[in-house]
Design a protein that fits this description.
The chain is α+β, with helices and mostly antiparallel strands. It has helices at about 5-20, 90-110, 135-140, 165-170, 215-220, 230-245; strands spanning about 45-50, 60-65, 75-80, 120, 145-150, 180, 190-195, 205-210. The radius of gyration is 18 Å and the shape is globular. Belongs to the endonuclease V family.
């Protein structure tokens, strides 16, 4: 296969990203976001895709909705999907977003009263090569506030796993402490957050849509029982359990 089709695909996706980027809102838009204790927030969503080991095409697309602040399960949707778009670094959203949107649409049609007021995404938002990651794309296309939470540092725009970065992590004393992820341009693209007192390894929080960075960080911390915020942790656990149940011969 020649490189030309991939180059054409990249140009098309870059154009689409730029178009969607114009619709991105990086500020708080909901009343509950402005309350110190998030009063008015009742439902938080989490999404994730889990793949059968050795298979990068067939996956379980998972949506969960939990109560806030109790983190009790209100709704779950597990659906096997076949990804059709190729994997190209920086364009993960074009592979995964359609199936996550379908899950949200099924919820909207079947149980609209349980639609989440904010969605946590296992991935990055503004903290991205072109400042438009999976959490941004899902947010803009769904119209819902979204928060990107990544477990690993994306080394992008001048942010690296440097000695300085490691020393900043070491300086995080307790759950809720954070430091900014500042691009070479000087723009803050996200924050590294120590999500709990027990976990010294941070998560990387960035704006998806319709929420400010500071609010996203506070909300992420408030949803953490362990290192990863509960909506994402539950989506991950339940999608993996679905694969174990339905594909027992595969080592997921």
């Amino acid at each position: 296969m020649t490189a030309a089709p991939a180059e054409d695909q990249v140009r098309q996706w870059e154009s689409e990203q730029e178009h969607l980027r114009q619709q991105l809102v990086e500020d708080d838009t909901e009343a509950w976001q402005k309350n110190p204790d998030f009063s008015g927030l009742q439902r938080v969503g989490g999404v994730d895709l889990s793949f059968i080991k050795g298979d990068d095409v067939n996956a379980c697309a998972q949506l969960v909705v939990l109560s806030y602040p109790d983190m009790e399960l209100l709704y779950e949707d597990s659906q096997m999907v076949t990804l059709t778009a190729p994997y190209i670094a920086g364009f993960l959203a074009f592979r995964e977003t359609p199936y996550l949107l379908e899950a949200l649409q099924r919820l909207k049609e079947n149980r609209p009263e349980l639609l989440p007021q904010v969605v946590f995404v296992d991935g990055n938002g503004l903290f991205h090569y072109r400042e438009f990651g999976l959490a941004c794309q899902l947010g803009v296309l769904s119209g819902l506030p979204c928060v990107g939470v990544a477990k690993n540092l994306l080394q992008v725009q001048g942010v690296h796993k440097s000695e300085e970065h490691q020393s900043q992590i070491a300086a995080l004393q307790k759950g809720g402490d954070s430091f900014p992820l500042t691009a070479a341009s000087g723009k803050v693209l996200g924050k590294a957050l120590r999500s709990s007192d027990k976990s010294v390894k941070p998560v990387y929080v960035s704006v998806g849509h319709k929420i400010s960075l500071d609010t996203a960080v506070r909300l992420t911390h408030s949803c953490c029982r362990y290192r990863v915020p509960e909506p994402i942790r539950q989506a991950d656990c339940r999608s993996r359990e679905y694969l174990r149940k339905h594909f027992p011969a595969a080592d997921t």
